[in-house]
């Protein structure tokens, strides 16, 4: 079972205190999501998480790898297969 997206986002904020500016809005949006199937405004949870991951290349280290892997696994549970 996947942890809530908001919980993962809070862990990311703790592990990445100065996130890349391009990731900031998506990280903020993820704090409002519980599941990948949730939406943030007119954006799907899948798109919010996908855009976060594409803007989080500078988030590195063991914690980053684990948290990104958790998000990628959550995307795979989406009805569309994360696409």
Name the shape in a single word. Answer: globular
User: How helical, in percent, are the residues?
Assistant: 40-55%
Strand order of the largest sheet: 1-2
Structural class: mainly alpha
Q: Average pLDDT across residues?
A: 94
Q: Which percent band covers the strand fraction?
A: under 5%
Count of folded domains:
1
Radius of gyration: 11 Å
Order of helices and strands: HHEEHH
Oligomer: single chain
Biggest sheet descriptor: 2 strands, antiparallel
Question: How widely separated are the two ends?
Answer: 20 Å
Low-pLDDT stretches: none
Figure out the total of helices. Answer: 4
Number of strands: 2
Description:
- The protein is mainly alpha-helical and 83 residues long.
- It has one domain (5-76).
- 52% of the residues lie in helices and 5% in strands.
- It has four helices and two strands, in the order H-H-E-E-H-H.
- It has a two-stranded antiparallel sheet.
- Strand 1 and strand 2 form a beta hairpin.
- Helix 2 (24-30) runs antiparallel to helix 3 (45-54).
- The longest helix is centred in the C-terminal third of the chain and has 15 residues, at 62-76.
- The chain is globular and about 30 Å long.
- The mean pLDDT is 94.
